[in-house]
């Protein structure tokens, strides 16, 4: 197990949660980079409620995820749902599972 600082993690810290496996590159025993999976599943902890018919409008709203980042999601996504997020772009990919 290796400890990393927020500076070493960079943007990866926005997608980390318990149990997530990462690839760690080192140079002479010192961590130099962290590689995330292409997508992670994160829980929505806060967002505005959706309204009937929102699936047809194609709009989006801001959702706060369990790691603290904010992501634009479709209007039909509710608090408590688990979504897939692209770790390279930070974009919503779809509902998990």
UniProtKB/TrEMBL annotation:
One of its GO terms (molecular function) is translation elongation factor activity. Transmembrane segments: none annotated. GO terms for cellular component: cytosol. SMART domains: Elong-fact-P_C. Residues 40-95 form the Elongation factor P C-terminal domain. One of its GO terms (biological process) is peptide biosynthetic process. PROSITE patterns: EFP. This is Elongation factor P C-terminal domain-containing protein. It comes from marine sediment metagenome.
């Amino acid at each position: 197990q290796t400890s990393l600082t927020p500076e070493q993690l960079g943007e990866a810290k926005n997608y980390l949660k318990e149990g997530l496996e990462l690839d760690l590159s080192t140079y002479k025993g010192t961590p130099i980079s962290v590689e995330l999976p292409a997508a992670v599943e994160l829980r929505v902890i806060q967002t505005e409620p959706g309204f009937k018919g929102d699936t047809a409008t194609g709009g989006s709203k801001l959702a706060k995820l369990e790691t603290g980042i904010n992501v634009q999601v479709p209007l039909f996504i509710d608090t408590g749902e688990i979504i897939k997020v692209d770790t390279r772009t930070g974009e919503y990919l779809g509902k998990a599972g």
